[in-house]
Please model this.
Amino acid sequence: MLLRMTFRDDSSIDNSLASAGGGGGLGRGMMIGGGGIGTVVIGLIIYFLTGSTGGAPQQPSQQGAGQGISAGQEQVNRDIAACKTGADANKNTTCRIVATSNSLDKVWATLVRGYKKPAGLKIMPSDAASINTGCGVADAGTGPFYCPADNVAVFQLDFMDRVIKKMGGSNAAFSQEYIVAHEWGHHIQTLLGDINKAQQGKGAQGGSVRVELQADCYAGVWASKADKGDGAMLKPLTQEDINGAIQSAQAIGDDTIQRNAGRNVNPESFSHGTSEQRVRWFTQGYKSGAPSQCNTFTGSI
Ligand SMILES: [Zn+2]
Model:
């Protein structure tokens, strides 16, 4: 049961970029050499929500290759086709992801000159073992990610509905929306030419952490604007909604993930920043509503 429904019932939804991901889309070329994300990827980086849920790179599953689409994918495509209004987004996770992407496109079009939408929004059902993107083959356990090579954002229903809560995140609808907004943050970074800064330096002060914290800040900027103005798709957000996003940002900090996995906290291995940093940068974006306040690339973070 999700907490408060956040979309205006009468807001209208554009489902044209969304489709079910995984399975049948596996390309043979990407299978060569095996390995999952991180090994099959040739010089291309993809941007995750967390550093942990994927675990070690795995052999991509053969499932779906040349076998058409799964029952779960058929259901996702039916849900996408039926996704017309905010009322649908309030009832259904697939539709909530699509509607959030619409709101993100609307808000960012007002903030970024020449804004372009991502090329695709892929939603993976639990019976899809892996997905092929321009960044390589990603196992279903990878968690939500954005691939800058082909501008595609990927979300797994299992992560959105179950895994994030298991990690200590919130069950609020707005928590799911924060996750979508974080990946859109990487799309903005791609449009602005900042995404490759992730490769500058490693560890707690390195490029990856800086890029990830900026994506959290951008998610906050979106949140500050998504419920305002004539075309707003969200109802006025409450503190409870915002707390849902904060709880989830807290849950997916590198230090918290390492601690919960029974490991020692090792800043040298950080990729996304601590819980405190993730919450602080999301909040900074939310309170300022200004992308210029999301400069994580200079100074200490
Ligand atoms: Zn990310």
